Amino acid sequence: MADGSELASEMRVVLVTAPDPETATKLARELVGRRIAACVNVVDGVTSIYRWRGAVEEAREALLVVKTTAARYPELERALVELHPYELPECIALQPAAVAPKYAAWLAGEVS
């Protein structure tokens, strides 16, 4: 059986912001329903400060923490273009250093 660091090479944790918890929950349900993500955590109440079109903006948002695989990541990007209300949705994929083997196996099975 592979160890957590070997399995981690296929796993992705993707950060996506949404304008509110309702939109975030709708996106999360769609991603899990389509088997693009095995799990999505919705974290309400984040404050984002960013530069947009030359101005510094501040917004209350919800953060989605999406768990998927490298193979499903391109489909995740396409789904966000299709479903997300933002003109330019955040979609930042992180590769974990290690993943518990049983969790990695569950995750891979849920998005296959």
Overview of this protein structure:
By secondary structure, the chain is an alpha+beta fold. The chain has one domain: 2-Layer Sandwich (Alpha-Beta Plaits). The chain is built from four helices and four strands; from the N terminus they run H-E-H-E-E-H-E-H. It has a four-stranded antiparallel beta sheet. The radius of gyration is 15 Å and the shape is globular. The model has no long low-confidence stretch (mean pLDDT 94).
Defining key terms:
single chain, 112 residues, Alpha-Beta Plaits, 4 helices, 4 strands, 35% helix
Q: What is the quaternary state of this protein?
A: single chain
What is the helix content? 25-40%
Give the overall form: globular
Number of helices: 4
Under CATH, the topology can be stated as Alpha-Beta Plaits
Separation of the first and last Cα atoms: 19 Å
CATH structural architecture:
2-Layer Sandwich
Cα-atom Rg, whole angstroms? 15 Å
Question: What is the β-strand count?
Answer: 4
Unreliable parts: none
**Beta-strand content bin:** 35-45%
The total number of structural domains is: 1
Main sheet, how many strands, which sense, barrel?
A: 4 strands, antiparallel
- Overall pLDDT metric: 94
Please identify the top-level CATH class: Alpha Beta
Structural class: alpha+beta
Strands in their spatial order, largest beta sheet = 2-3-1-4
Order of SSEs: HEHEEHEH
